[in-house]
Amino acid sequence: MTVSPADTREEPLPADFGGVRDAVRDQLAAYLAERVADAGAADGEFATELCERMAAFTLHGGKGLRSVLAWWGWLAGGGAATGRGARAALRACSALEVLQTFALAHDDVMDAAPLRRGAPSFHAVYTARHRQRGMRGDARRYGESLAVLVGDLAVLWADDLLHESLAALSTGAAAHAVWRDMRTEVVAGQFLDLTAQALGDRSEETAVRIDRLKTATYTVERPLHMGAAMAGADASTVSALRAYGTDVGVAFQLRDDLQDAFGAPDRTGKRAFEDLREGKSTLLLASGVRLAGEAGDTAAQDLFSRAGHPSNRVDPEEAAAALDRVGAREEVRRRCRRLAERGRERLRSLDLDPAVADGLHRFADTAART
Protein backbone atom coordinates (compact mmCIF):
# COMPACT_ATOMS: atom_id res chain seq x y z
CA MET A 1 0.00 0.00 0.00
CA THR A 2 1.32 3.43 -0.96
CA VAL A 3 1.13 6.05 1.78
CA SER A 4 0.70 9.64 0.62
CA PRO A 5 2.58 12.47 2.36
CA ALA A 6 -0.69 13.68 3.92
CA ASP A 7 -1.17 10.28 5.58
CA THR A 8 2.16 10.55 7.42
CA ARG A 9 1.53 13.95 8.92
CA GLU A 10 1.12 14.11 12.68
CA GLU A 11 -2.42 14.61 13.85
CA PRO A 12 -2.87 17.87 15.77
CA LEU A 13 -3.56 17.58 19.46
CA PRO A 14 -7.19 18.43 20.30
CA ALA A 15 -8.54 21.83 21.35
CA ASP A 16 -12.07 20.91 22.48
CA PHE A 17 -12.60 20.34 26.21
CA GLY A 18 -13.32 16.62 26.07
CA GLY A 19 -10.50 15.91 23.66
CA VAL A 20 -7.94 17.82 25.72
CA ARG A 21 -9.08 16.16 28.93
CA ASP A 22 -8.75 12.71 27.38
CA ALA A 23 -5.30 13.52 25.99
CA VAL A 24 -4.19 14.77 29.41
CA ARG A 25 -5.45 11.62 31.11
CA ASP A 26 -3.57 9.47 28.61
CA GLN A 27 -0.40 11.38 29.48
CA LEU A 28 -1.05 11.05 33.19
CA ALA A 29 -1.93 7.37 33.05
CA ALA A 30 1.42 6.52 31.51
CA TYR A 31 3.39 8.81 33.81
CA LEU A 32 1.69 7.73 37.03
CA ALA A 33 1.93 4.03 36.16
CA GLU A 34 5.67 4.46 35.75
CA ARG A 35 6.01 6.31 39.05
CA VAL A 36 3.89 3.75 40.94
CA ALA A 37 6.05 0.94 39.56
CA ASP A 38 9.18 2.78 40.70
CA ALA A 39 7.64 3.29 44.15
CA GLY A 40 7.12 -0.45 44.44
CA ALA A 41 10.89 -0.89 44.47
CA ALA A 42 10.98 1.18 47.65
CA ASP A 43 8.10 -0.65 49.35
CA GLY A 44 5.23 -2.66 47.93
CA GLU A 45 2.63 -1.66 50.50
CA PHE A 46 3.57 2.02 50.13
CA ALA A 47 3.03 1.71 46.37
CA THR A 48 -0.32 -0.03 46.81
CA GLU A 49 -1.81 1.82 49.77
CA LEU A 50 -0.64 5.33 49.01
CA CYS A 51 0.74 5.71 45.48
CA GLU A 52 -1.90 3.68 43.62
CA ARG A 53 -4.71 5.37 45.54
CA MET A 54 -3.29 8.81 44.77
CA ALA A 55 -2.88 7.94 41.09
CA ALA A 56 -6.41 6.55 40.78
CA PHE A 57 -7.88 9.66 42.39
CA THR A 58 -5.90 11.90 40.04
CA LEU A 59 -7.05 10.02 36.95
CA HIS A 60 -10.73 9.55 37.77
CA GLY A 61 -13.56 11.78 38.92
CA GLY A 62 -12.10 15.25 38.47
CA LYS A 63 -13.23 17.78 35.88
CA GLY A 64 -9.73 18.38 34.52
CA LEU A 65 -10.31 22.14 34.32
CA ARG A 66 -6.83 23.37 35.11
CA SER A 67 -4.97 21.28 32.56
CA VAL A 68 -7.49 22.12 29.84
CA LEU A 69 -7.26 25.83 30.62
CA ALA A 70 -3.46 25.66 30.54
CA TRP A 71 -3.59 24.00 27.10
CA TRP A 72 -5.99 26.67 25.89
CA GLY A 73 -3.53 29.26 27.19
CA TRP A 74 -0.81 27.56 25.12
CA LEU A 75 -2.95 27.67 21.96
CA ALA A 76 -4.15 31.23 22.67
CA GLY A 77 -0.54 32.31 23.10
CA GLY A 78 0.42 30.99 19.67
CA GLY A 79 1.60 27.52 20.63
CA ALA A 80 1.48 24.84 17.96
CA ALA A 81 -0.95 21.91 18.10
CA THR A 82 1.60 19.47 16.66
CA GLY A 83 5.22 18.60 17.17
CA ARG A 84 7.60 17.90 20.03
CA GLY A 85 6.95 21.26 21.68
CA ALA A 86 3.20 20.72 21.68
CA ARG A 87 3.54 17.29 23.26
CA ALA A 88 5.88 18.67 25.93
CA ALA A 89 3.46 21.52 26.64
CA LEU A 90 0.51 19.16 27.02
CA ARG A 91 2.54 17.02 29.39
CA ALA A 92 3.41 20.11 31.45
CA CYS A 93 -0.28 21.04 31.55
CA SER A 94 -1.10 17.60 32.94
CA ALA A 95 1.07 18.32 36.00
CA LEU A 96 -1.69 20.65 37.19
CA GLU A 97 -3.98 17.67 37.78
CA VAL A 98 -1.41 16.02 40.07
CA LEU A 99 -0.98 19.32 41.92
CA GLN A 100 -4.76 19.46 42.38
CA THR A 101 -4.64 16.10 44.18
CA PHE A 102 -2.17 17.63 46.63
CA ALA A 103 -4.47 20.60 47.26
CA LEU A 104 -7.59 18.48 47.77
CA ALA A 105 -5.95 15.89 50.03
CA HIS A 106 -4.65 18.58 52.38
CA ASP A 107 -7.77 20.76 52.12
CA ASP A 108 -10.02 17.89 53.19
CA VAL A 109 -7.86 17.25 56.27
CA MET A 110 -7.98 20.93 57.24
CA ASP A 111 -11.75 21.08 56.70
CA ALA A 112 -12.41 17.64 58.22
CA ALA A 113 -14.40 16.95 55.06
CA PRO A 114 -15.70 13.36 54.94
CA LEU A 115 -16.49 13.39 51.21
CA ARG A 116 -14.73 14.38 48.02
CA ARG A 117 -16.15 13.80 44.54
CA GLY A 118 -19.02 11.85 46.04
CA ALA A 119 -16.75 9.33 47.80
CA PRO A 120 -14.89 9.20 51.13
CA SER A 121 -11.95 11.60 51.25
CA PHE A 122 -8.42 10.26 51.70
CA HIS A 123 -8.31 10.77 55.46
CA ALA A 124 -11.75 9.17 55.85
CA VAL A 125 -10.63 6.09 53.90
CA TYR A 126 -7.45 5.64 55.93
CA THR A 127 -9.25 6.25 59.23
CA ALA A 128 -11.81 3.56 58.37
CA ARG A 129 -9.07 1.11 57.33
CA HIS A 130 -7.27 1.66 60.64
CA ARG A 131 -10.44 0.75 62.53
CA GLN A 132 -11.30 -2.22 60.29
CA ARG A 133 -7.82 -3.72 60.75
CA GLY A 134 -7.76 -3.12 64.50
CA MET A 135 -4.53 -1.15 64.28
CA ARG A 136 -2.91 0.55 67.23
CA GLY A 137 -3.06 4.24 68.04
CA ASP A 138 -5.60 6.91 67.20
CA ALA A 139 -7.47 6.06 63.98
CA ARG A 140 -8.28 9.64 63.08
CA ARG A 141 -4.69 10.82 63.53
CA TYR A 142 -3.46 7.91 61.42
CA GLY A 143 -5.97 8.71 58.66
CA GLU A 144 -5.09 12.38 58.59
CA SER A 145 -1.35 11.65 58.61
CA LEU A 146 -1.60 9.34 55.60
CA ALA A 147 -3.74 11.88 53.76
CA VAL A 148 -1.02 14.47 54.35
CA LEU A 149 1.48 12.02 52.85
CA VAL A 150 -0.77 11.59 49.81
CA GLY A 151 -0.69 15.35 49.32
CA ASP A 152 3.07 15.48 49.85
CA LEU A 153 3.62 12.75 47.27
CA ALA A 154 1.33 14.47 44.78
CA VAL A 155 3.14 17.81 44.95
CA LEU A 156 6.50 16.05 44.54
CA TRP A 157 5.37 14.10 41.50
CA ALA A 158 3.67 17.18 40.04
CA ASP A 159 6.95 19.10 40.30
CA ASP A 160 8.86 16.22 38.73
CA LEU A 161 6.43 16.00 35.83
CA LEU A 162 6.51 19.72 35.20
CA HIS A 163 10.31 19.98 35.25
CA GLU A 164 10.74 16.99 32.95
CA SER A 165 8.24 18.46 30.50
CA LEU A 166 9.56 22.02 30.52
CA ALA A 167 13.09 20.81 29.78
CA ALA A 168 12.00 20.41 26.13
CA LEU A 169 10.83 24.04 25.84
CA SER A 170 12.97 27.15 25.46
CA THR A 171 10.29 29.03 27.44
CA GLY A 172 10.53 26.66 30.40
CA ALA A 173 11.94 29.25 32.81
CA ALA A 174 9.05 31.66 32.19
CA ALA A 175 6.49 28.90 32.66
CA HIS A 176 8.16 27.68 35.83
CA ALA A 177 8.02 31.21 37.28
CA VAL A 178 4.22 31.10 36.88
CA TRP A 179 4.07 27.65 38.51
CA ARG A 180 6.17 28.93 41.41
CA ASP A 181 3.90 31.94 41.98
CA MET A 182 0.75 29.83 41.67
CA ARG A 183 1.85 27.37 44.35
CA THR A 184 2.64 30.20 46.77
CA GLU A 185 -0.67 31.93 46.05
CA VAL A 186 -2.81 28.86 46.70
CA VAL A 187 -1.10 28.30 50.06
CA ALA A 188 -1.57 31.99 50.90
CA GLY A 189 -5.25 31.65 50.03
CA GLN A 190 -5.58 28.60 52.27
CA PHE A 191 -3.82 30.47 55.09
CA LEU A 192 -6.22 33.39 54.78
CA ASP A 193 -9.18 31.01 54.63
CA LEU A 194 -8.19 29.24 57.85
CA THR A 195 -7.26 32.45 59.66
CA ALA A 196 -10.43 34.29 58.67
CA GLN A 197 -12.50 31.30 59.77
CA ALA A 198 -10.74 31.16 63.14
CA LEU A 199 -11.18 34.91 63.68
CA GLY A 200 -14.79 34.93 62.53
CA ASP A 201 -13.84 37.55 59.92
CA ARG A 202 -16.98 38.46 58.00
CA SER A 203 -15.62 41.29 55.85
CA GLU A 204 -16.40 41.17 52.15
CA GLU A 205 -12.89 42.39 51.35
CA THR A 206 -11.33 39.36 53.06
CA ALA A 207 -13.76 36.98 51.34
CA VAL A 208 -12.88 38.35 47.90
CA ARG A 209 -9.13 38.14 48.61
CA ILE A 210 -9.54 34.48 49.59
CA ASP A 211 -11.59 33.79 46.46
CA ARG A 212 -8.95 35.37 44.26
CA LEU A 213 -5.95 33.61 45.80
CA LYS A 214 -7.42 30.21 46.64
CA THR A 215 -9.58 29.72 43.56
CA ALA A 216 -9.39 32.36 40.81
CA THR A 217 -5.62 32.46 40.44
CA TYR A 218 -5.06 28.75 41.03
CA THR A 219 -7.97 27.38 39.02
CA VAL A 220 -8.22 29.75 36.07
CA GLU A 221 -5.81 32.69 35.89
CA ARG A 222 -2.47 30.94 36.47
CA PRO A 223 -3.21 27.84 34.34
CA LEU A 224 -4.02 30.14 31.40
CA HIS A 225 -0.96 32.23 32.23
CA MET A 226 1.31 29.17 32.42
CA GLY A 227 0.11 27.90 29.05
CA ALA A 228 0.61 31.31 27.44
CA ALA A 229 4.08 31.61 29.01
CA MET A 230 5.07 28.24 27.56
CA ALA A 231 3.97 29.50 24.14
CA GLY A 232 5.96 32.74 24.49
CA ALA A 233 2.82 34.87 24.19
CA ASP A 234 3.06 38.66 23.99
CA ALA A 235 2.21 40.86 26.98
CA SER A 236 -1.23 41.93 25.71
CA THR A 237 -2.34 38.32 25.23
CA VAL A 238 -1.10 37.34 28.68
CA SER A 239 -2.84 40.35 30.22
CA ALA A 240 -6.18 39.56 28.55
CA LEU A 241 -6.06 35.90 29.56
CA ARG A 242 -5.13 36.71 33.14
CA ALA A 243 -7.89 39.31 33.45
CA TYR A 244 -10.39 36.79 32.09
CA GLY A 245 -9.07 34.24 34.56
CA THR A 246 -9.46 36.53 37.56
CA ASP A 247 -13.04 37.53 36.71
CA VAL A 248 -14.31 34.10 35.74
CA GLY A 249 -12.33 32.38 38.49
CA VAL A 250 -13.96 34.51 41.19
CA ALA A 251 -17.37 33.94 39.58
CA PHE A 252 -16.67 30.20 39.62
CA GLN A 253 -15.92 30.30 43.37
CA LEU A 254 -19.04 32.35 44.11
CA ARG A 255 -21.06 29.75 42.21
CA ASP A 256 -19.45 27.06 44.37
CA ASP A 257 -20.42 28.98 47.52
CA LEU A 258 -24.01 29.17 46.31
CA GLN A 259 -24.06 25.45 45.55
CA ASP A 260 -22.77 24.69 49.04
CA ALA A 261 -25.69 26.56 50.61
CA PHE A 262 -28.42 25.90 48.07
CA GLY A 263 -27.27 23.04 45.83
CA ALA A 264 -27.70 19.28 46.02
CA PRO A 265 -24.89 17.09 47.42
CA ASP A 266 -25.29 14.61 44.55
CA ARG A 267 -24.27 17.45 42.20
CA THR A 268 -21.46 18.93 44.28
CA GLY A 269 -19.93 15.65 45.51
CA LYS A 270 -19.56 17.17 48.99
CA ARG A 271 -21.61 17.26 52.16
CA ALA A 272 -24.34 19.91 52.03
CA PHE A 273 -23.83 23.18 53.91
CA GLU A 274 -20.16 22.38 54.58
CA ASP A 275 -19.05 26.04 54.39
CA LEU A 276 -21.87 27.22 56.65
CA ARG A 277 -21.14 24.49 59.20
CA GLU A 278 -17.48 25.50 59.32
CA GLY A 279 -18.19 29.23 59.28
CA LYS A 280 -16.08 29.82 56.16
CA SER A 281 -15.50 33.46 55.25
CA THR A 282 -17.36 33.40 51.96
CA LEU A 283 -18.68 36.44 50.13
CA LEU A 284 -22.15 34.91 50.47
CA LEU A 285 -21.96 34.92 54.27
CA ALA A 286 -20.20 38.31 54.40
CA SER A 287 -22.91 39.85 52.20
CA GLY A 288 -25.55 38.26 54.40
CA VAL A 289 -24.04 39.90 57.50
CA ARG A 290 -24.06 43.33 55.83
CA LEU A 291 -27.56 42.99 54.37
CA ALA A 292 -29.02 41.66 57.64
CA GLY A 293 -27.58 44.69 59.43
CA GLU A 294 -28.99 47.08 56.85
CA ALA A 295 -32.42 45.45 57.14
CA GLY A 296 -32.35 45.27 60.93
CA ASP A 297 -32.93 41.51 60.73
CA THR A 298 -31.64 40.55 64.19
CA ALA A 299 -32.59 36.88 63.79
CA ALA A 300 -30.41 36.60 60.70
CA GLN A 301 -27.60 38.53 62.37
CA ASP A 302 -27.66 36.09 65.29
CA LEU A 303 -27.57 33.08 62.96
CA PHE A 304 -24.65 34.44 60.94
CA SER A 305 -22.67 35.37 64.06
CA ARG A 306 -22.91 31.75 65.27
CA ALA A 307 -21.85 30.13 61.97
CA GLY A 308 -18.84 27.93 62.65
CA HIS A 309 -18.91 28.51 66.41
CA PRO A 310 -17.78 25.24 68.04
CA SER A 311 -20.01 25.46 71.12
CA ASN A 312 -23.07 27.16 69.62
CA ARG A 313 -23.56 25.64 66.18
CA VAL A 314 -26.04 27.15 63.79
CA ASP A 315 -28.58 25.07 61.85
CA PRO A 316 -27.11 25.38 58.33
CA GLU A 317 -30.46 25.03 56.60
CA GLU A 318 -31.85 27.85 58.73
CA ALA A 319 -28.80 29.98 57.92
CA ALA A 320 -29.22 29.28 54.19
CA ALA A 321 -32.85 30.34 54.37
CA ALA A 322 -31.80 33.56 56.15
CA LEU A 323 -29.21 34.28 53.45
CA ASP A 324 -31.95 33.98 50.87
CA ARG A 325 -34.33 36.12 52.94
CA VAL A 326 -31.96 39.08 53.35
CA GLY A 327 -31.05 39.05 49.64
CA ALA A 328 -27.48 37.70 49.85
CA ARG A 329 -28.22 34.83 47.49
CA GLU A 330 -29.51 37.12 44.75
CA GLU A 331 -26.72 39.65 45.28
CA VAL A 332 -24.04 36.99 44.82
CA ARG A 333 -25.89 35.63 41.79
CA ARG A 334 -25.82 39.07 40.18
CA ARG A 335 -22.13 39.42 40.94
CA CYS A 336 -21.44 36.05 39.30
CA ARG A 337 -23.20 37.15 36.14
CA ARG A 338 -21.38 40.50 36.02
CA LEU A 339 -17.98 38.91 36.50
CA ALA A 340 -18.63 36.24 33.88
CA GLU A 341 -19.75 38.84 31.36
CA ARG A 342 -16.72 41.01 32.06
CA GLY A 343 -14.53 37.96 31.61
CA ARG A 344 -16.05 37.28 28.21
CA GLU A 345 -15.37 40.88 27.21
CA ARG A 346 -11.66 40.39 27.99
CA LEU A 347 -11.43 37.89 25.14
CA ARG A 348 -12.60 40.29 22.42
CA SER A 349 -9.07 41.50 21.68
CA LEU A 350 -7.72 37.98 21.11
CA ASP A 351 -7.59 36.01 17.86
CA LEU A 352 -8.49 32.60 19.29
CA ASP A 353 -8.83 29.15 17.81
CA PRO A 354 -12.62 28.61 17.47
CA ALA A 355 -12.58 25.62 19.82
CA VAL A 356 -10.61 27.61 22.43
CA ALA A 357 -12.91 30.63 22.12
CA ASP A 358 -15.96 28.40 22.44
CA GLY A 359 -14.49 26.62 25.47
CA LEU A 360 -13.62 29.83 27.30
CA HIS A 361 -17.04 31.33 26.64
CA ARG A 362 -18.76 28.13 27.77
CA PHE A 363 -16.67 28.11 30.94
CA ALA A 364 -17.75 31.69 31.68
CA ASP A 365 -21.37 30.69 31.03
CA THR A 366 -21.02 27.83 33.53
CA ALA A 367 -19.65 30.19 36.17
CA ALA A 368 -22.65 32.47 35.70
CA ARG A 369 -25.17 29.63 35.90
CA THR A 370 -26.31 29.84 39.53
Report the structural category: mainly alpha
Assign the CATH topology of the largest domain: Farnesyl Diphosphate Synthase
Order of helices and strands: HHHHHEEHHHHHHHHHHHH
CATH top level label of the largest domain: Mainly Alpha
Strand fraction equals: under 5%
Ends distance = 56 Å
> Could you give the count of β-strands?
2
Q: Level of helix content? A: over 70%
Count of individual domains: 2
Counted by DSSP, the helix tally is 17
Residue ranges: pLDDT <50 for 5 or more in a row? 1-8
CATH level-4 homologous superfamily of the largest domain: Farnesyl Diphosphate Synthase
Principal-axes shape call: flat
Q: Which oligomerization state do the chains in this entry correspond to?
A: single chain
What would a concise description of this structure say?
77% of the residues lie in helices and 1% in strands.
What report would you give on this structure?
By secondary structure, the protein is mainly alpha-helical. The chain has two domains: 158 residues, Farnesyl Diphosphate Synthase (Orthogonal Bundle), CATH 1.10.600; 200 residues, Orthogonal Bundle (Farnesyl Diphosphate Synthase). It has 17 helices and two strands. A two-stranded antiparallel sheet has the order 1-2. β1 and β2 form a beta hairpin. α2 packs across α5 and α3 packs across α5. The longest helix has 28 residues. The protein is flat and about 70 Å long. It starts with a helix and ends with a helix. The N terminus is likely disordered.
